[in-house]
């Protein structure tokens, strides 16, 4: 393909997701509502963990608070722009804005992968090493591990953004997707993208596969330990502490594996799958953790009900 410096792109146009025109208003309101509820739900979890002294000093809920921040961030960089695609007129995204969106999505997404792994390790220690848990997983250590996840995520996001946008883009500028993600943007590069595709596949594959393997190993040990508990009530309580985490991991990892861990990502289902880690999972996480976690529900009641509720609990 011939390159002309005069045609170097300064902006991209996101096509969004295919939809019937008669549903334009409904979809705009739907995703706007999803965004607002996502922010409010995660903010509520964050305030609850911070305000309740029984929660904010415990590693599990430190990780949950960080997860809420990540969910608010991912939703903010993706969903408002997605909602705009359901309004009339062309709304281009600047070249720098596209690069920033790709960076922050992969920064926050990989941080979330690392965080899910830390949460699984925390549950492993709590259930399989209960007597040593207060020593092995302190609040200070959990904060340091969370900071390490942020650092590793930022490096991963920077690597992907630099590799993607070091290539020349000289037209066309229409991204056949609802946000600036690697497979969709690389299609527009006027240069060979073989190395980029290979590095993306290997890098994201290593992150996803290693994190998922560690989570799987943790839960194999957890299940083996739970099955040794003699009382049905004890097994139920042990399973309940892990149920929310298992649910969000399944909802998050399956779409990510479908999108990125294939040599060719040209399926029209990619866009539908990408809605889960970008819009659906951040929305569902507060619901899952409040509906399935008894301690969070009790903390919410204490915070809303005041002193009278505290005395009742």
From TrEMBL:
It comes from the Eukaryota. Coiled coil: none annotated. Keywords: Cell membrane, G-protein coupled receptor, Membrane, Olfaction, Receptor, Sensory transduction, Transducer, Transmembrane, Transmembrane helix. The keyword Transmembrane helix applies. One of its GO terms (cellular component) is plasma membrane. Residues 41-289 form the G-protein coupled receptors family 1 profile domain. The keyword Membrane applies. Its main location: membrane. The chain crosses the membrane at residues 26-49, 61-83, 103-121, 141-163, 204-227, 239-261, 273-291. It is found in: Cell membrane. GO terms for molecular function: G protein-coupled receptor activity; olfactory receptor activity. It is a multi-pass membrane protein. This is Olfactory receptor family 10 subfamily G member 3. It comes from Microcebus murinus.
């Amino acid at each position: 393909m011939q390159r002309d410096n005069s045609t170097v792109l300064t902006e991209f146009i996101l096509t969004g997701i295919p939809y019937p025109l008669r549903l334009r208003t409904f979809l705009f309101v739907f995703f706007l509502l999803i965004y607002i509820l996502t922010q409010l739900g995660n903010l509520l979890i964050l305030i609850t963990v911070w305000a309740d002294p029984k929660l904010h000093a415990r590693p599990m809920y430190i990780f949950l608070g960080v997860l809420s921040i990540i969910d608010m961030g991912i939703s903010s960089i993706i969903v408002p722009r997605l909602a705009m695609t359901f309004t009339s007129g062309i709304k281009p995204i600047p070249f720098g804005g596209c690069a920033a969106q790709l960076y922050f999505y992969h920064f926050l997404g990989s941080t979330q992968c690392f965080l899910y792994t830390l949460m699984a390790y925390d549950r492993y220690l709590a259930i399989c090493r209960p007597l040593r848990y207060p020593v092995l997983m302190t609040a200070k250590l959990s904060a340091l591990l969370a900071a390490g996840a942020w650092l590793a995520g930022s490096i991963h996001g920077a690597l992907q953004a630099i590799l993607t946008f070091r290539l020349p883009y000289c037209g066309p500028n229409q991204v056949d997707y609802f946000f600036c993600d690697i497979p969709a943007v690389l299609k527009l590069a006027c240069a060979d993208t073989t190395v980029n595709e290979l590095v993306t596949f290997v890098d994201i594959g290593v992150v996803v596969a290693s994190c998922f393997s560690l989570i799987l190993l943790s839960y194999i040990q957890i299940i083996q330990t739970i099955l040794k508990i003699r009382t049905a009530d004890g097994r139920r309580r042990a399973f309940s502490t892990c149920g929310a985490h298992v649910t969000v991991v399944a909802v998050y990892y399956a779409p990510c594996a479908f999108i990125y861990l294939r040599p060719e990502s040209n399926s029209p289902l990619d866009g539908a799958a990408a809605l889960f880690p970008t819009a659906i999972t951040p929305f569902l996480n507060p619901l899952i953790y409040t509906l399935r976690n008894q301690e969070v529900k009790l903390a919410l009641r204490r915070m809303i009900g005041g002193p009278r509720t505290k005395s009742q609990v």
